[in-house]
Write a structure and sequence with these properties.
The protein is an alpha+beta fold. About 30% of the residues lie in helices and about 25% in strands. The protein has a single domain (about 5-175), classed as Cyclic Phosphodiesterase, Chain: A (Alpha-Beta Complex). It starts with a strand and ends with a strand.
Length: about 180
């Protein structure tokens, strides 16, 4: 996979689901656990590519603030783990329809510029990204379940320039 470079919109997983994902990441992919909090990428990896890094932060905030102000917090089910085709990436998918898709589409129509997306909208929380999985580790990882709901109550906007650490630019609570 190509290095991440751009501005991404995430929603970090807090509470029980976030703690469960963090524990899984620490066990199966300590590097991922060290580099980023458990999260769902709303803009940057699927459906909408990342926002170009030369986009002014205030323009991004001005476009996202009305969406966050009119979007209600969500409690969503994390599906069983799934291995991304022809990779060792394992994630917890979420239903790509409903309020999460509506928010994603509203951001896409906000007037912000986006790079081309490589994949259709497939919301997920990554469990393992960096290590090569042995058949045993893959079976163990795919057998795990996170039963606590993913609580989506804010948007975080990050500047990502791999291999440098990502930098939080701002966050907006969902208030609708």
């Amino acid at each position: 996979m190509a290095a991440a470079f751009g501005i991404f919109v995430l929603t970090e997983l807090a509470g029980e689901a976030g703690a469960a994902v963090r524990e899984i990441q620490q066990r199966f992919d300590p590097k991922l656990a060290r580099l980023t909090p458990p999260h769902i990428t709303v803009v940057g990896s699927s459906g909408l590519g990342s926002i170009p890094t030369d986009t002014p932060v205030e323009r991004i905030r001005d476009a996202l603030a009305p969406i966050a102000a009119t979007t209600a917090p969500m409690s969503l089910r994390l599906e069983p783990p799934h291995r991304f085709m022809q990779t060792d990436i394992v994630s917890l998918p979420l239903d790509p329809h409903g309020p999460l898709r509506t928010m994603h589409e509203r951001i896409g129509k906000s007037g912000l510029p986006f790079k081309a997306a490589r994949f259709r909208f497939t919301p997920h929380c990554t469990l393992s990204f960096y290590p090569t999985l042995t058949p045993q580790r893959e079976r163990e990882l795919l057998a795990l379940r996170v039963t606590a709901p993913a609580i989506i109550d804010r948007l975080q906007v990050y500047l990502t320039r791999d291999p440098q650490p990502s930098k939080l630019l701002f966050e907006l609570p969902l208030l609708g």
